[in-house]
# Entry
Amino acid sequence: MALGAELHAADAVRKTHTHAYETFKSPGAGRIGLVADGDVVVERTRHPYRLPTAPTRAERVVMLTALLGGMDQAVEQALRDDPPPGLVVEAMGGGNTQAQLVELARTVMAAGTDVVLTTRTSAGRVRPGYGFPGGSNTWWDAGAIFAGTLGGLKSRVALALALGAGADREALLGLFGWYGGGARA
# Structure
């Protein structure tokens, strides 16, 4: 992506302002290059992750954002009644949610749903570290796949396409591992 004379990798770039001209930045990773005096200057290279096979469709993936309050019971019941193939949870900070959301994730994982945990912050990644109910350790222990540096929307697209390509858990671990994520062995 080239905007404002800067080059950014699609997996790292984020819109940081609603309408400012120089809104696209890559928090944590930085730009990959720039355009100066009519020349393209590459400052670092990127090698994209490639799925083993091309997706034939995008699978249904639901995304939930963790809130300080409780979860909508209608949403929770809908997920329990008809678990989607994939679920992405945007956690607070380093991977923290309300305990109720971890329990919902355990239920849908038992039904075959692949669950990916990411952060709703603009940079960084979730990682084990907090042991309270709903903390990142409880997600790790539950078997969620940590997204690495991919945010919620990018994790949702990646998971939908990977599942559409027939990816199993091992392939998903490879995909999200590429971005610094992973899961408990």
Notes: The chain has two domains: 2-42, 61-178. The two ends are 35 Å apart (CA to CA).
